[in-house]
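3.2 Worked example (two chains)
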Amino acid sequence: MKNNPFAYVLSGLFVLLAHLAMLANIMYNGNYAQLSDVWTLAGTVLGLDLAWFIIMPFFRQHSHTVDFILILILNMSLIFQSCFGEVHLALKHMITCIAALAASRIGFFLCRDHNWIAKQKKFVWIGIGVVMIIILLFTGSRSMWINFGSFTIQPSELLKPLLVMACATSVAEQQKKHKLLWFNVVWENLILLGITAAICLLQWWCRDLGSIPTFAAIYAAGFLMRICYPKAKFSKKTLIGAGIAVLAIAGIGIKLAPAYVRDRLFVDIWSDKTGNGYQQSQALIAIADGGWFGKGPGKGFLHNVFAYESDIVFSTISEEWGLLFALMVIFIILLMLAIPLINPARSYYHGTLAAGVCAAFTVQMALNIFGSCNMIPFTGVTIPFISMGGTSMVTSGLMAGMLIASQSPEFGKLPTKKAPAKKKKPASRPAVRKGAQA
């Protein structure tokens, strides 16, 4: 797509047509008080599309595929959030969508040169430590949020992209092995294990157990990429031992979990529809009421239930737009994650970077969707780019930028060595003819 203007224009038209189809559905089937509300939403969505299409060619990239999918899903999200209950422009969500687009540029510029970003790994570790200290000091008593009046941020979300960058590695780094007792270990791998354990303990202390699987998935993706780099030899016993250790830790975690968490593990939502099972039971009812094609934008009931726009947003979309449309949205996000598999990353560092992002997004979506559908305990984790949430949206945009960087990397120039100066040959003495007199 880099040198193909036709493909660029065609991709832009596809995104515009997708958003126009959704806006047309709102106009003819939506619940709105005034037609001007629909026009305001339409102008905002199409304006963001066109602005993004104009800006993108100014960035030097090998491919803009992830960028097109990103603007597609973000404006779909803006349309969803603007229709829950009644059609109106969700101004706050629009701002966070723009912030996510800006964050994707930051993630791209930060990670496109793997030679440079790999050298900053110690600063990434320090950044993780600083964020953890901020959580302990400023979020209050075992909380996740920092309040600035009506504005709140969730610092733990920033740990996700930082941990992804910490887990990213190159083949060369995995060759630096040292003898520890009877094992050959890489010190960086042990440091990474300690960092991940500290983050999970902090999440447990903050009562945010739902985020622990996401951090564990990021570490697992990085761990597998570290031990399975090309032509590496690793013991199957190590993998089996690691699996047993994970199961043991999970069992201990469930045993020591707070009472409300254990209740969610074993609750029967239909016998406790007004208690712990309220959100899940209402979410399932909403999915059933919406059917395949939904009640219509703004015509649902689930917007009256707590966290309809974040924790159970999949059910809210299913009720108003239909299960078919909700599944299509998830498919689009998965398509964005599959791009690094279709077009392999151009360095091992970018490959491990993309693996961590894909692991985080996939686990988050699974926890939200399966939790809403009562297939697993309800965790309250958001769907990337779809759920309402400023900090979550910005960090998701930053991680999308990492995917873009893995597809359009920029390699630093290797230092050139000066060629050694050629030695001057000594001047040859004139030949003397035979018989010549001295």
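3.2.1 Second chain
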Amino acid sequence: MSKGVLKVFSEVAHLYELVNHILTFGLDIPWRKKAARVAASGGGSLWLEVCSGTGEMAVNLKELATPQTRIILSDFSMPMISRASKKVELREASISLADSQQLPFPDNIFDLIVISFATRNITPTQEKLTEFFREFHRILKPGGRFVNLETSQPSSTPIRIAFRLYTKQVVKLVGKIISGSKTGYVYLAHTIPRFFKADVLSDILYESGFLKVKYITMTFGAVAIHRAVK
């Protein structure tokens, strides 16, 4: 990821969870729980959360993992991953400071890779996103699963307009006031309405080499969970 994106997430790390809860009216909590259930349902002994941030999704995964399951958290922001490492629930998890474009793991080792609310920040282009997904595909075992939780685009025109207006006006302003970051939530608000529709993201996953791509949408299509298999 770019140095600009790194700066954004480093600036907002201290209040990232609080701001997310406020801006989504707390809905990000059940969204993550649902995605974690989808992810954990296939089992496996080695799970990776990419762009793990402060570890909220990892906590949900930990609750659903067996005692034999090892969970690794990976993120490129030291302030973010530092906050995750301090959570009691993640004291047994492994931590990796790494860029998701060049993950420091060998081929074919993970049963599961999860990413939540970070995909839209990886890259704005379909071609580059395909490259990132191929990196995730590389380190998954054959038959391993990739689960992506991300904002999406509501299919209803009135809801989509309202969603984009809220993102443009409220997310940018409230995020800035609470976090104290002048640029962080301006950037994040910019990425939300420009991310791919759920069906288009499915096509990108297929192009990246994944199979059996399925997705479900939540909250009138504002959020989607994609599940794909290597």
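3.3 Remarks
DSSP finds ten helices and seven strands in the chain.
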